[in-house]
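I would like you to sit down with the pair of lines that follows and say whether C-alpha cells and residues agree.
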Amino acid sequence: MHGTGRQFIQYRDAFAGFGRWHRCIVLCPLFPVGVRGDGDRNGFKRLAEGDIRYDKVLLEMVREVGERYGKRFDTFALFGYSGGGQFVNRFAYAHPERLWAASIGAPGNVTLLDESKAWWLGVGGFERHFGKPFDLPALRRVPVQMVVGRADLETWEITVREDSPMYLPGINDAGRTRPERLRALKASFEAAGIGVRFDELDNIAHNGLQVVEVVQDFFADSLRTLRTGD
C-alpha cells in the first residue's frame, strides 16, 4: 500500500522479483487524492473518508484480481510504509481474518491496540465504526512485522497541530518520532498477546524502498510457514 506520495509503481517494481520467485501476485493499489473535492491526501490512511471505505475498496480490488486470474485470495499479505503503514495498522484491526501477514512500516500516526482510547487513536468504539466487534483472537493469528529506520527522526510532518483537521486530543502522545511511535504500537500489540517482529534499521531515514528487502524476508518466512503448515 502506497503512502502519501503514492509511489505505487516503484513498489510494484520492487516486489516484482518476489512475486516471480514465490509464485505470488503483487497488487499495488492507487487511491486518488481529494476524491471529495477537498484536496485531502490522507483519507485512505484512516480507512474511512466520508462514505468511502478504503478497506472495502481494497477487498474489492483483491476480489477482482482473483476473478481475472481464476483464483481465490481469501487471505493475503499486506505491506505499507508511512501513510501506507497507517493503512496496514488499521486494516489489520478491521480485517485480521483476511491476512496471512502484515508489515507496518514507519507510520506517522498509530492506532494503539488500546480499548481505553477512542478510534482512531485506539480501538475504543470499534464496533460502532465498523459494524462488527474487534476480533483479537484473529489478529493474534496474523504474523506481524513493524519496520522503521533508526534515523527516521524528523518530527515536522508527524506532529499534528491543534489547528489541523486531523487533530484529536492525545494524537501526539505515542511519541515524538516515528521509531518512538512504532515502539508504542509494538508494546500495545505485545500487551494483547501478539508477537511482533520489530526491525529498526541502521542508517535509514524515511525511505520505504530501502526497507523492502527486510519486508520481503519477513513475507518469505511467513509464506513458507503458511505453505508447509509448520
About this structure: The first strand starts at residue 48 and ends at 49. Residues 86 and 110 are 6 Å apart (CA to CA). The two ends are 28 Å apart (CA to CA).
